Amino acid sequence: MNKEERQKIIRRLVTQNTIETQDELLALLRKNGVNATQSTISRDARELYIVKTYQEDGKIKYSIVDQESQKNSENKLRESLQETLKKIEQVGFIVLIHTENGLADVITNYIDEVKYEEIAGTVAGSDTIIIITYSEKLAQNFVKKIEVLYSSRSENKH
């Protein structure tokens, strides 16, 4: 079975079932004739934008992130940064974003929704966001992405 067929089955299973763990997904795949390793399934999940989400009852389940929704969140992030960003700085593998007072949590929500691969976690205060990345290099990459979003305002306002 090729990658495209396997991913099509994964997409269908995640959409039609409540799957809480990767082991459950692997078991369902086997029942559907797919024999793949855990690392292959993890890679497929990343490529298909499958993430863990919370259900109304508080349980976790796998869901497919709507890529259009991610782009929309990045547009909202761009607009928010252009209106509220005061300063961005990198301290090792940590990025600090300083905003207008009371708006850090809004920007943090947009950052979380976009799901930047560099980010391990975020913390929002009133006017400061702490972004923990996986390495100094990834922190630099993330700072560049934010600077591009921030500086693209002149293109969007015309």
Please supply descriptive tags for the structure shown above.
elongated; 53% helix; two-stranded antiparallel sheet; 158 residues; 6 strands; disordered C terminus; alpha+beta; 22% strand; 7 helices
Structure notes:
The structure is a single chain. The protein is of the alpha+beta class. Helix content is 53%, strand content 22%. The protein contains seven helices and six strands, in the order H-H-H-E-E-H-E-E-H-E-E-H-H. Strands 3-4-6-5 form a four-stranded antiparallel beta sheet. The protein has a two-stranded antiparallel ribbon with strand order 1-2.
Summarize the structure.
This protein is an alpha+beta fold and 158 residues long. The protein is built from seven helices and six strands; from the N terminus they run H-H-H-E-E-H-E-E-H-E-E-H-H.
Tell me the strand percentage band: 15-25%
Number of strands: 6
Shape: elongated
Based on secondary structure, the structural category is: alpha+beta
Strand count, sense and barrel status of the largest sheet are: 4 strands, antiparallel
Helix content: 40-55%
Computed CA radius of gyration, to the nearest angstrom: 19 Å
> What does the oligomeric state look like here?
single chain
SSE series: HHHEEHEEHEEHH
Strand order of the largest sheet: 3-4-6-5
